[in-house]
Amino acid sequence: VPITCCGENVQNRPQCFPISIPSDDPHFDDSCMEFVRSAPSPPGDGCQLGPQEQINQITSFIDGGSVYGSSKEKMEELKNTDTGQMRTSPGDLLPPAVDDTCESSAETDFCQNAGDLRVNEIPSLGGNHLLFVREHNRIVGELRKVQPKWSSLKLYQEARKIIGALLQQVTYGEFLPSILSKQDLENHKLKLRNSGFSNNYDSSRNPATKNAFNAAVFRFGHSLIPPNLAYLLYDFMSRVNSTTIESIFFNPHLLITEGGRRVSDLARFIVTSNSMKVDNQLEGAVRDHLFENAHGKGMDLGALNLQRGRDHGLPPYNAWRKWCGLTVATSFSNLPDITDEKKTVLADLYSGVDDIDLFAGGVAETPLDGAAVGPLFSCIIGNQFRDLKDGDRYWYENRGVEGFKQAQLREIRKVKLAKIVCTNLGVDPIQPDVFHVPSPSNNWQSCSQFPEIDFARWR
Questions:
Q1: Any idea what DSSP says for residue 19?
Q2: pLDDT digits over 300-340, tens only?
Q3: How far apart are CA 289 and CA 301, in angstroms?
Q4: pTM score of the predicted model
Q5: Annotated binding site for heme b
Q6: Peptide bond into 95 cis (omega under 30)
Q7: So which residues are the signal peptide here (predicted)?
């Protein structure tokens, strides 16, 4: 049963930290917004007293947890023990969830089951889960051809290992270069090797995701959310069924309708459409209508992000600037890396410059040249992803008995996200860099033009 934090006799519950809404709010007519605190945890290894921390309920490693789950129970629930593949439903869609809490637009709609419980929040997110489930199952089929005597468990484990490697490669080779500047990639040693093994594993690095990263910094993506999703037909010109984001929260209809036959149309729209830019403006769908119910009661994602930072006790924006070795502001007028217009907005909202929340200050910064985020978020993101890479004993480039052979690593390095998308979601042609829209320098190519893994290296 969900915890309620708005109403008589419940706001003082220890689990509650509700947001007070002023009477002159331009959208919300209630005086309270629901907010449940994160589950508490002792600091460090849990064996000493100290400041309260919070539990991360999913894996922090880039290891495909969204595909396979973060617990043995979820893993067993999602895999087909007879074949080594992941369970799917008709149409090669994700399997149905037992706990059906989704909205339905048709009798054939269902709530999807995946490694992360947020799979149904929005159809485009569900599409990301589906992409790598299909790729896992495809890889199992290819491995079975070259290793027909392998057990279903061996096939599952090797395919999972390859999926983890592909996710790490796409994250560091394609995603991070679209978020951080070339200089920051160099400074934080985030560039992947072109050949050979890595010797960068450092057992003293803590690969856990940091509280500030989880509760504020990586939420910069919330400002990227567009107002609509739609289908883009095979001619790459006809957009149909345009739907507002606020109307499809927890409604996977766009993804699963017609037995999955519109998956390609949705994926085609996503990879050819611009996101919004990183700034202090959130789209109305998530600012005024987040998870809105039938009675028109929704939430404000920006307000929730600020409250989550306070719930977790994050130091303010200025303190993090100091931590990163950046110039610290002494007044609103000398806030570095923020335009005069946004300085005025922050001065209207906060009593002093040292009160600015980490999320609010970070998204207000002007992006660095060649980056999507400003200097503070670049610093914290760079530090976090350095820890996730060099603190991971099973990092795909590492040499070791659990790792890949050099010939196998060469095959994995060939693969781009574009190849995974076109192979599994039917977007063909597709641009080489799917994190940027098609352009003369990022022009469409046939799926067959992209290199693919030669699984003979697994014989």
A1: E
A2: 999 999 999 999 999 999 999 999 999 999 999 999 999 99
A3: 9
A4: 0.95
A5: 222
A6: no
A7: none
